[in-house]
Amino acid sequence: MSNVKQVRLIGFGGQGVVLAGTILAHSAIKDGRWVAGSSAYGAQARGGTARYDVIVAEDQIKFPHMISTDILIAFSQKAYDESLGQLSQENALVIYDDLLVKPITLDKADQIGVPATDRAIKDLGNKQAANMVMLAAAAVLTGLTSQTSLVKALEENSAARFLEINRKALALGQEIGLNIKKNINRKE
Amino acid sequence: MARDLDAYLRQEVKSTPFCPGCGHGILMNIILRAIADLQLDMKNILFVSGIGCAAWIPSPHFNGDTLHTLHGRAIAFATGAKMANPKLKVIVISGDGDLTSIGGNHLIHAARRNTNLTVICANNMIYGMTGGQVASTSPLGAVTATTGEGNPYQPFDLCRLVLGAGAEYAARFSVTQPLVLMAAIKKALNMETFTFIEALSPCPTQFGRRNQADSSVQMLKALMQDCVTREQAAKMDKVVLKTKIITGEFSHE
Amino acid sequence: MNDTNEINSALSPGSYFFTGNEAAAEGAIAAGCRYYAGYPITPSSEIMERMSQRLRDVSGVFMQMEDEIASICSVVGASWSGAKSMTATSGPGFSLMQEAIGYGVFTETPLVIVDIQRAGPCTGQATKVGSGDLMQAKWGSHGDYQIIALSPWSVQEMYDQTIDAFNLSEQYRVPVFVMSDEAVGHLRERMDISPTLRVTNRYKKSGAAPFGTEEKDGVPPMPSFGEGENITVTGSTHNEFGVRKTDDPNVQEKLVGRLNHKILNNREEIVQSESYYMDDADVIVIAYGFTARSAFFAVDQLRKTGKKAGLLRLKTIWPFADKLITEIGRKGKKLFVPEMNSGQVYGEIRKYADCEVIPYHQTNGRIIHPKDIMQHIERIL
């Protein structure tokens, strides 16, 4: 992982975007990294879009807000469309939910579709768990945080009644991430 | 007779700052007598006052801890001191303008919270220290420095105000009724709740001279005539009663 | 003199992911705060909410008062009852507290006020950032006085400086302000808690005058109510035993003089700052609070392209870093001062720096972006 990664998780209200961002932040701290996070505050939070920005760094963070998006994790078409303009000029990565987002061709960014919602429904029978599937897959694909820390962070931040399903979702996400990674490596 | 209260007074303070005929000296005496009778330890009492003539009753005269605060804020300061050290007996002594006008919000909220404070309001029905302006307690028609043609507004009924806000005990007596006033103060000091004593105290300097009470003796006499007990009031004609002050103990009935 | 000792942190040591407001509450608990009174106001309310929970854990007292005036007054009362005490507020609430702040100064009451500054004046932009209260912290109450005001730039420093504020308030018997802002108060980032911290204890000396001293630091010992010390506390001019002496010009002059001197004479010890890339800098940015984060990023980026920019970060706003600014001014460098107000600290810097000082004001409720600072510095260079 390069020194500073600016990560934007974005979708619509109710998808658990803020929880995913919070768990990512706690998890990266457990890895010993420096983290700053901010969610949409005020009226935005009650509108359609839900957003959580996380900056993950190896050293203390100078400026704690996002300047441009290094890693975009998009949970909806609208979120995807809205966020492309903020992508960093170099080495940007877009990870999107392949059931909910139809990607357009991008010159300067790599894009990876993750079947988070699809597999959450098929394997877990729970659409709500897609956020954790996406998070664990993105963690594998980006190296932002370790699976061990993700599980610990989940245990500290998830409501007890959702803990079991979320644990399963993280495991599923990790598996999906590893498979995608294998395929990418094979192509290269 | 006054000698036996020496221990309750700061020795370096030789005289009170009050005008001739002011009722606050009598009230000062009654409060200390109540404390002496109850054998309360002055080391354990904090007296809190605001700004105005009555705020000088405890500060710096009383030989315990005294906190002489900002105008209107005595009860807020007292709340912090009491909550941080519940062992303290906290007595707030201040004037009507201080406690019920600028500080009215703190008064009703302390009553609502039932904070364990005894609040003694020396009510002279006027702003004495600043030169005799109308107060929220001045009688309808009273001539003051700011109501030359008479006060157009009716005064607060302070006891009903604090009872309405949740106080469990309120009493109103005049300094011309020293024994019942002292008994009420003792009763309040023995309660572990918010208690309120309204002590009517004449101000000849600012109130009397503007309202046909030419001497302090006359003012005291007028006060004695105006104050009626609740029992007397129950039998009185309503029109006559409007010119009277009903004294007694009040609680939720 | 006060003694200080090392105590265990209230939270277990480790890394946390807190907001600035949560960190301020944790700093207060760690420093020994046992009385909090406040009134809800955006953007500082989360401090009060957390204190309502955390004070329960440590058997302290939490009071939600009827207004900010009652809050600060009860904090003064609680401090005299022996509890380390605090309130937090924003904009309008800070205005309401000013009279009682003067009372705190004049009666030498240790207390801490956290001000999460928002864009004013008046109700202004209640949820947006500003730093327009710095002069109010300095001069907001009537009369002539000195206080201590700190300016945190991170969640970590919200914790650290709240602890510092309690220690300084005990050491100098003065209200201490943590002049934060909405951007730091609502920022969420990693902060670390070490196993122990140093706390300053109240200096007590039975029978000693509580409002006068011949000691060099100018700070008398402070008794508490209920200790049998027969304390008289008053906001009127008073002698060393607290007895009103409002007609005596010498008593007034001596008292006001000592209250000012006990801060100003010790300002070398109180004032703290940090500097980055200063030695060969052609332009030095002087910043504080969240703006210093933007400036830090900007200066770092400029250095990467070989441009000689430096940063001086003021951690203490009052007393002002006059000597430091004078020294920097002598080196003849250009100073650039970005602020989320109309130049409140710029004016102070102008008083002491004998060189070119360029202000940059932004009062639109938004943070000053690093790009803006970079552009300005490039123009100046």
Care to describe what's here?
The complex is a heterotrimer of chains A (188), B (253) and C (381). Chain A is an alpha/beta fold. Chain A has 7 helices and 6 strands, in the order βαβαββαββαααα. Chain A has a single domain (4-187), classed as Pyruvate-ferredoxin oxidoreductase, PFOR, domain III (Pyruvate-ferredoxin Oxidoreductase, domain 3). Chain A is 46% helix and 21% strand. Helices cover 33% and strands 17% of the residues of chain B. Chain B is built from 9 helices and 8 strands. An 8-stranded mixed sheet of chain B has the order 2-1-3-4-6-5-8-7, with helices on both faces. The longest helix of chain B has 14 residues, at 24-37. The N and C termini of chain B lie far apart (39 Å). In chain C, helix 12 (322-330) crosses helix 13. Chain C has helices at residues 20-31, 45-57, 68-80, 91-96, 98-106, 134-139, 155-172, 182-185, 249-264, 267-270, 289-304, 322-330, 344-352, 370-380, and strands spanning 4-8, 14-19, 33-38, 61-64, 84-89, 111-119, 125-129, 148-150, 175-181, 188-193, 196-200, 232-234, 273-276, 283-287, 309-314, 316-318, 334-339, 357-361. Chain C is 38% helix and 25% strand. In chain C, strands 3, 4, 5, 6, 7, 8, 9 and 16 form an 8-stranded mixed sheet that branches. In chain C, strands 13-15-14-17-18 form a 5-stranded mixed sheet, with helices on both faces. Chains B and C meet through strand 2, helix 2 and helix 4 of B and strand 3, helix 3, helix 5 and strand 12 of C. Strand 2 (34-39) of chain A pairs antiparallel with strand 10 of chain C, so a sheet runs across the interface.
